[in-house]
Amino acid sequence: MCTENKKIAIQDTYGERFQHCWGCGPKNEDGLHLHSYPSEDGESCICQFVPDKKYTGGVPANLYGGMIAMLFDCHGTASAAWFAHKNKGLELTEDTVIGRFITARLEIDFKKPVPMEEVITVTARAEELGERKAIIVMEMEAKGEIRAKAKMVAVSVKDNM
């Protein structure tokens, strides 16, 4: 759940074909249904998640690294889609079918363990935005501390991918 004023999640505007991701797809019955929202000023995107204890890593109190990567992956591509959409002068509405981005490269710096069963906030910003490519930088915060940072290269795809 997010406290942003805009209540339309970026993932809810994906075209039918792209709504089945385990992490963020609204139509994946077994998925996590992550939601990413543009900030009020549109300069960042925010995703919040509380990991269940079943997503633990080798130390029971810490989140599994693969889940950290998945959070960056799903939120980063949603954010890239938003920044490209905004760059065209468009807003999110209930009728929006946003352009889709996929991950071409993802670099993660794991700074501190990510605690279980606590609110994790991932904030994304566009570092560079081109015609087909976006470079997204992200920070993962929990309990007031930066736990991981990521840099993603995301590329736009056509609906017939």
UniProtKB/TrEMBL annotation:
Subcellular location: Cell projection, Ruffle membrane; Cytoplasm; Membrane
Domain Thioesterase: 62-144
GO molecular function: hydrolase activity
The keyword Hydrolase belongs to this UniProt entry's keyword annotation: yes
GO cellular component: cytoplasm; membrane
Catalytic reactions of this protein: (9Z)-octadecenoyl-CoA + H2O = (9Z)-octadecenoate + CoA + H(+); decanoyl-CoA + H2O = decanoate + CoA + H(+); hexadecanoyl-CoA + H2O = hexadecanoate + CoA + H(+); dodecanoyl-CoA + H2O = dodecanoate + CoA + H(+)
This protein's record includes keyword Cytoplasm: yes
UniProt membrane topology term: Peripheral membrane protein
Keyword annotations: Apoptosis, Cell membrane, Cell projection, Cytoplasm, Fatty acid metabolism, Hydrolase, Lipid metabolism, Membrane, Transit peptide
Gene3D superfamilies, alphabetized: Hotdog Thioesterase
Signal peptide as annotated in the record: none
SUPFAM superfamilies: Thioesterase/thiol ester dehydrase-isomerase (SSF54637)
Entry-linked InterPro entries: HotDog_dom_sf, THEM4/THEM5_acyl-CoA_thioest, Thioestr_dom
Similarity section: Belongs to the THEM4/THEM5 thioesterase family.
Protein name (record): Acyl-coenzyme A thioesterase THEM4
